[in-house]
Amino acid sequence: MKVTISPFGIETYDEVFALWRQCDGIGLSDADSRDNIRAYLERNPGLSFIATVDGAVVGAILAGHDGRRGYIHHLAVHPKFRRRGIARQLVDRCLKLLTASDIGKCHIFIFNKNADGLAFWTSVGWLWREDISVMSKNIETVESDGR
Ligand SMILES: CC(C)(COP(=O)(O)OP(=O)(O)OC[C@H]1O[C@@H](n2cnc3c(N)ncnc32)[C@H](O)[C@@H]1OP(=O)(O)O)[C@@H](O)C(=O)NCCC(=O)NCCS
């Protein structure tokens, strides 16, 4: 089986989105619309990848940075192609490029109940941070208080 890793271009959005929808552990939202993913890829050129086998998308990863820390989102491998090192290859590609951009640390968000995901990230050397929690706020409807 030949796995090809190539840059994630917006033209493969439909296939990647279909893959994400098949994968438990990927939380999809409005942020994953075609326009938003296009914007993400444009803000972080060349840092996100797909894996293909015989031309079909079997894996994907989004990566970017804010100038000081790297972030990886939505790493997914099709269930039929798991445990063949595809996710490891995708992550390695992203991390090499983030390192080349002088980014010294990368973070991911992962659901606490995602046992497979936690097993993967631990296996490839990532540390679960007991000292940090994520807080979020929907800011689409926040009104100014006049100050
Ligand atoms: C997590 C995921 C991306 C791993 O993809 P993968 O291509 O199967 O991972 P790899 O083959 O590169 O695994 C590398 C190593 O991670 C570990 N690993 C991966 N999946 C594992 C699992 N389900 N249980 C235990 N260890 C696992 C193993 O040590 C593996 O090496 P080995 O197969 O030689 O033992 C895949 O299971 C997936 O798409 N899950 C659903 C989406 C998801 O949860 N994404 C993560 C969001 S943060």
Account of the protein in words:
- The mean pLDDT is 96.
- A hairpin with a 4-residue loop joins strand 3 (56-65) and strand 4 (70-77).
- This protein has helices at residues 13-22, 34-43, 86-100, 115-123; strands at 3-7, 49-53, 56-65, 70-77, 106-108.
- The chain has four helices and five strands; from the N terminus they run E-H-H-E-E-E-H-E-H.
- Helix content is 30%, strand content 21%.
- Strands 1-2-3-4-5 form a five-stranded mixed beta sheet, with helices on both faces.
- It is globular and about 60 Å long.
- The protein has a single domain (3-123), classed as Aminopeptidase (3-Layer(aba) Sandwich), CATH 3.40.630.30.
- It has 147 residues and is α+β, with helices and mostly antiparallel strands.
- The structure holds coenzyme A.
Blueprint (SSEs and pairs):
Blueprint: E1 3-7, H1 13-22, H2 34-43, E2 49-53, E3 56-65, E4 70-77, H3 86-100, E5 106-108, H4 115-123
The chain binds coenzyme A (COA).
